[in-house]
Write a structure and sequence with these properties.
By secondary structure, the protein is of the alpha+beta class. The protein has a single domain, classed as Factor Xa Inhibitor (Irregular), CATH 4.10.410.60. Helices cover 39% and strands 12% of the residues. It has 3 helices and 3 strands; from the N terminus they run αββαβα. The protein has a 3-stranded antiparallel sheet with strand order 1-2-3. Strand 1 and strand 2 form a beta hairpin.
Length: 64
C-alpha cells in the first residue's frame, strides 16, 4: 500500500509542538482591528492549541 500524502492545506495551517500537541493560528485577527482592544489583539497574535478531540484527525493529515 502506498504512503499517505500530507494534506497541503493542513501543513500550512498547523504545526506540532515538542510534546505532540497541535498548534494553530487564532481567528479574528486579520481585519476590523480598530474596535478590538490592544490586549485582545495581543492574545489573538499568540498561537492557540487545537482541541484534543480534533487533534488526532489533524495529526493524520499532517503526518508525512
Amino acid at each position: 500500500m502506498p504512503k499517505m500524502k500530507t494534506n497541503s492545506g493542513a501543513k500550512k495551517r498547523f504545526r506540532l509542538t515538542a510534546t505532540g500537541k497541535v498548534r494553530r493560528a487564532k481567528a479574528y485577527a486579520r481585519h476590523i482591528l480598530t474596535k478590538k482592544h490592544p490586549k485582545r489583539k495581543r492574545r489573538l497574535a499568540q498561537p492557540g492549541l487545537v482541541d484534543p478531540s480534533d487533534a488526532g484527525r489533524i495529526k493524520r493529515l499532517i503526518r508525512s
